[in-house]
Design a protein that fits this description.
single chain; 250 residues; alpha+beta; Bactericidal permeability-increasing protein, domain 1; 5-stranded antiparallel β-sheet; 12 strands
Length: 250
């Protein structure tokens, strides 16, 4: 190392300009002491160690964050729903809808004597399969950098549902967005009531919840079947491993 005679900065032996002041290093002005390594003071040594420790800590935090975001999350997959679940799902969509005969006066609906509402129960696995089927997942093709592959839903005894959306970045790297919600129905309006959100295993600050939940909102908006059920929904009950919905006649 050579020491700049003007500002005192240390420079490499082959340096032409000083990295401290930018002035050209004139070898004729350099003294023998300029080629000696500058000894650090005690405070400078401490600061050097502190900077090294901080650099290591920041690097570890960044690595942990990246690993946490892309870390695999256990979730259910959208296999075929059971025959009973499929039947219930279809009935929930058509419940209370009166058939109309073309060219004739509609007859008295026999369903008028039946209950005005009906409940349907689905397991976590069946609900996951039905969701993926109604949302046409996985979504392939297009120029999207992040494609939706699978939507998992599981129900807990505290009345919450955990939704995990699995997507692929550039069609290769899997990512998992998790939203925990506590659904309620008031005056025919379904509210999801977000409890927390995560990307991988990394919790998302409350201020950014909207960006994560919007992905689920956009995805569910593409299902006519879900829209039909939501328009008649009057009650949602969640127990450990199952969901019970109640729909009523319009």
């Amino acid at each position: 190392m050579i020491k700049c005679p003007k500002c005192g900065s240390d420079n490499l032996l082959n340096a032409i300009f000083c990295r401290g002041c930018g002035e050209k290093l004139d070898l004729s002005e350099l003294k023998p002491d300029s080629f000696l390594e500058k000894k650090l003071t005690k405070s400078q040594k401490i600061m050097k160690i502190v900077n090294q420790v901080l650099s290591v800590v920041i690097a570890l935090l960044l690595i942990t964050l990246i690993v946490g975001i892309f870390f695999p999350v256990a979730h259910l997959t959208g296999n075929e729903p059971s025959a009973d679940a499929t039947k219930q799902f279809e009935e929930a969509q058509t419940f209370g809808v009166q058939a109309v005969r073309r060219g004739r006066r509609p007859p008295r609906n026999k369903d008028d004597d039946k209950p005005s509402s009906k409940s349907f129960t689905f397991s976590s696995q069946d609900a996951t399969a039905l969701l993926n089927k109604s949302l046409h997942l996985p979504i392939t093709g297009g120029d999207n950098k992040l494609t939706s592959e699978n939507l998992s839903v599981s129900f807990a005894g505290d009345g919450c549902a955990t939704l995990i959306l699995t997507s692929k970045l550039m069609g290769k790297v899997p990512m998992h967005n998790t939203v925990v919600v506590k659904p309620t129905v008031s005056n025919g309006v379904l509210a999801m009531n977000v409890q927390k959100t995560k990307i991988g295993f990394v919790p998302v600050p409350a201020q950014l919840n909207q960006k994560i939940t919007q992905k689920f909102v956009n995805l569910s908006g593409g299902s006519t079947a879900l829209d039909k059920i939501k328009s008649k929904l009057t009650e949602v009950k969640i127990s450990d491993g199952s969901l019970t919905i109640t729909v009523s006649k319009k």
